[in-house]
DNA sequence: CGGTAAATTGAATCGTGTCAATGTAAGTGG
DNA sequence: CCACTTACATTGACACGATTCAATTTACCG
């Protein structure tokens, strides 16, 4: 986990699963406001003016694009502490929605006079993540994708056995380029092999880390 | 196409297909050196120290990752004028190779004291491209992927009918998450429908733009 | 030209998608 | 507190698109 002196991307979950206060990113920049978004509500839409960078205080966010016929690709999920909303020009190229009830810190783009090293670093990290995800979508099987997804989520939640899944099976499918049925089948197979347990629909327990890691590539 | 006062990403091909001089990016930064790479030669490897940002003077570059069993995902191709080599930390996370004989301008990272607006802008554009490609890999069919690929290449080469394909079918497959056979079959089908012509293995002519555009989504 | 690597084409297989039915958890009102 | 509703997830049977494996064919270069 990162030290306090650098940028905090990982969510900070207490042992009871309740979010801990999240450090501010972006140097001395102060958020203009904190906003709450109800489950399923829109944070921004494709084509809208991109006014802010966002940091998740608690909750979870999906960022996605749509094809004309309704096919959806989720490009990333964002959890507590993580930052999103970078855009190459004045407008958003994606949609962003709250998955669960979500509180966001807004950092107005207009306040970024000089690009800080921290903002740049966050952008590069976002780029690296997107490029890594290309490998998953382009070259991995359904089982490998799900395994990689669970390990990624686990790591971002502090490496605990218990992994929260704020998103639906449909969201997971649209992130991994799979249908809900395939996601569900892989989950069931992992459960049968006792690699994971599924205590509720929205959580998973990783029982055999090395088996998952071996699967994920 | 972009004005001269802003960053030049598009290749500048003359009507004879010969590269024109490419403007310098990155503000007043001057390249330390210009290097030539033979076809197939390595520009950098995963894990290596990331010392430079690169601009293609002429030629073409593939940037990719490998899975343990040899599966490869090309995350992007770079053509004349385009800039690559951004990394989130001190090391490269990908491999880069010259496809054809390629000349590169090297901009040492050590010389970037403050992050320039232009460097940031290039990074954001790279991010947006990666995110767009996620949609292709996650949610499009083989025919849609190839159509989108041809249109993208055509646009980056100035929107001419004649499109150069510096990369092999294998490269195209590894970029689109397909096998060479599938790529080849789609090419043949497009040729049969007279949507494209294939005068040589390494070039394509787009005959029916709207048909391709309709296919690509 | 002839040799070689790359690309194309064909046939069979496999993985994931599609469609349909069933199961399950959470929420509502009686 | 329980029936009822509704949305979501799981499971099964089948279809289809892409891969695999194999056989040609084509383009390129000495």
TrEMBL record, chains A, B:
GO terms for molecular function: DNA binding; DNA-binding transcription factor activity. Pfam families: cNMP_binding, HTH_Crp_2. GO terms for cellular component: cytosol. Residues 37-85 form the Cyclic nucleotide-binding domain. Residues 140-205 form the HTH crp-type domain. Keywords: DNA-binding, Nitrogen fixation, Transcription, Transcription regulation. PANTHER family: CRP FAMILY TRANSCRIPTIONAL REGULATORY PROTEIN, FUMARATE AND NITRATE REDUCTION REGULATORY PROTEIN. This is CRP/FNR family nitrogen fixation transcriptional regulator.
């Amino acid at each position: 986990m990162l030290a306090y002196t650098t940028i905090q991307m990982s969510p900070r979950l207490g042992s009871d699963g309740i979010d801990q206060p999240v450090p501010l990113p972006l140097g001395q920049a102060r958020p203009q406001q904190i906003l709450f978004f109800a489950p399923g509500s829109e944070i921004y839409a494709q084509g809208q003016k991109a006014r802010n960078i966002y940091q998740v205080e608690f909750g979870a966010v999906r960022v996605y694009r749509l094809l004309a016929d309704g096919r959806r690709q989720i490009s990333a999920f964002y959890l507590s502490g993580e930052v999103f909303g970078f855009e190459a020009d004045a407008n958003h190229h994606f949609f962003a929605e709250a998955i669960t009830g979500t509180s966001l810190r807004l950092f107005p783009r207009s306040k970024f006079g000089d690009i800080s090293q921290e903002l740049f670093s966050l952008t590069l990290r976002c780029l690296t993540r997107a490029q890594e995800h290309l490998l998953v979508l382009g070259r991995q099987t359904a089982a490998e994708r799900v395994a990689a997804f669970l390990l990624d989520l686990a790591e971002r939640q502090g490496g605990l056995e218990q992994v929260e899944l704020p998103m639906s099976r449909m969201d997971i499918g649209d992130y991994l380029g799979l249908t809900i049925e395939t996601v569900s089948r892989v989950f069931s197979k992992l459960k049968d092999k006792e690699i994971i347990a599924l205590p509720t629909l929205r959580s998973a327990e990783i029982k055999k880390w090395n088996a998952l890691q071996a699967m994920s590539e």
